[in-house]
Amino acid sequence: MDEFVTFCRNVFVPVTNVCRNKCTYCTFRREPDDPQAQLMQIEEIIPILEQGKKAGCTEVLFTFGEYAEEIPQYKEWLKDIGYSSTVDYICELCKIAIDIGLLPHTNAGVLNYMELEKLKPLNSSMGLMLETTAYIAAHEGSPGKEPSRRIKTIRYAGELHIPFTTGILVGIGETLDDRINSLLSIAELHEEYGHIQEVIIQNFTPKPDTLMAKVAAPTEEEMMQVILIAREILPNDVAIQVAPNLIDPHLLIQCGANDLGGISPTTIDWINPEAEWPSVSELNEMVHEVSLKERLPIYPQYIKKGWYSDTLKDLINDLSDEEGYRKT
Ligand SMILES: O=c1nc2n(C[C@H](O)[C@H](O)[C@H](O)CO)c3cc(O)ccc3cc-2c(=O)[nH]1
Ligand SMILES: C[C@H]1O[C@@H](n2cnc3c(N)ncnc32)[C@H](O)[C@@H]1O
Ligand code: SF4
């Protein structure tokens, strides 16, 4: 067990929930004609960022449905606000966030090399869940969950020296062998490029009104097992993240989990909206004998290696202490 576990204070901005994929476990996605389908406007995003900054957050998590541009209505919405591509819009949002004093972390699904190259100087880290290397029913309607496409995106991020978050989603129809294979693929990518800062071991949580509503969530024992295996497979400089709003982290920490991800004092978890964030004092109680340490969305070793652009330099300097954690 590590002497401390880390977490990050963030704001979650669900920029668009229009998505070309149809993962059967997901309630984030909306059909384009659904009244709740959205592309958030700059004017509604700014106050969310300002409120988060005031509450002491260091990160903004920008989340998107994947390649929404494949859907004609979305293309129109984007045009209406003056952008010809999602990536151009993300760049603008990142610049605004940096001006307000938040470090961007973008998770926009599969992206190509050129798109990642544009986003790199404006993001302190980026993310894409590998989910699983297996071919499962839940992903049959999701071209972007093809394992080789996900691996390609993670590889490009490595070539570009982008500090990266990935992970596996546990309990979506994959076997124990599949979990091991997925973790081995991630370890291999990290051994080649050295860019994986954390691996999320996310427990699937069934949502009402989805095709997977009646599928059981993984048990705590299964989660403990996969974390023990992950700690064996992944190099020691890669953190293992579990989500404290989805599962009690206490025993998982004893198995090797050492990060609790982003928690937000001002926004909800838009992917798991039923699961409320614990407060920092509740987190303290949840982790028992270990201590909590606040980090930034870029891990200390990537600050030391200088894996960030000049655009982010002043903000990172301002927010971090000598060790690369959150300055207190
Ligand atoms: O609030 C959430 N944050 C999620 N995060 C955010 C994450 O906890 C933090 O942004 C990172 O640890 C960086 O600080 C993700 C980030 C990724 O790159 C990929 C997947 C996720 C998944 C979630 C999630 O389900 N809920
Ligand atoms: C951002 C990440 O959120 C995860 N995600 C999507 N739906 C669910 C769910 N029902 N339960 C847990 N995690 C989920 C996926 O792993 C996605 O990549
Ligand atoms: S999990 Fe992501 S890719 Fe899958 S349907 Fe939901 S928003 Fe789209």
From TrEMBL:
Q: In which pathway does it act?
A: Cofactor biosynthesis; coenzyme F0 biosynthesis
EC nos: 4.3.1.32
Metal-binding as a keyword?
Answer: yes
- Where is the secretion signal located? none
Q: What cofactor does this chain's UniProt record say it requires?
A: [4Fe-4S] cluster
Write down the SMART domains for this protein, in alphabetical order: Elp3
**Binding, [4Fe-4S] cluster:** 19, 23, 26
Q: Known catalysed reaction(s)?
A: 5-amino-5-(4-hydroxybenzyl)-6-(D-ribitylimino)-5,6-dihydrouracil + S-adenosyl-L-methionine = 7,8-didemethyl-8-hydroxy-5-deazariboflavin + 5'-deoxyadenosine + L-methionine + NH4(+) + H(+)
Q: Which GO terms describe its molecular function?
A: 4 iron, 4 sulfur cluster binding; 7,8-didemethyl-8-hydroxy-5-deazariboflavin synthase activity; iron ion binding; transferase activity, transferring alkyl or aryl (other than methyl) groups
Question: Which residues belong to any copy of the Radical SAM core domain?
Answer: 5-245
- Keywords recorded for this protein, A-Z: 4Fe-4S, Iron, Iron-sulfur, Lyase, Metal-binding, S-adenosyl-L-methionine
Cofactor stoichiometry and binding remark: Binds 1 [4Fe-4S] cluster. The cluster is coordinated with 3 cysteines and an exchangeable S-adenosyl-L-methionine.
Could you say which enzyme class this protein belongs to? lyase
Q: What role does it play?
A: Catalyzes the radical-mediated synthesis of 7,8-didemethyl-8-hydroxy-5-deazariboflavin (FO) from 5-amino-5-(4-hydroxybenzyl)-6-(D-ribitylimino)-5,6-dihydrouracil.
Stored HAMAP family? FO_synth_sub1 (MF_01611)
**How is this protein organized at the quaternary level?**
The FO synthase complex consists of two subunits, CofG and CofH.
**Per the similarity annotation, which family is this?**
Belongs to the radical SAM superfamily. CofG family.
UniProt name for this protein: 7,8-didemethyl-8-hydroxy-5-deazariboflavin synthase
Source species of the chain: Methanolobus mangrovi
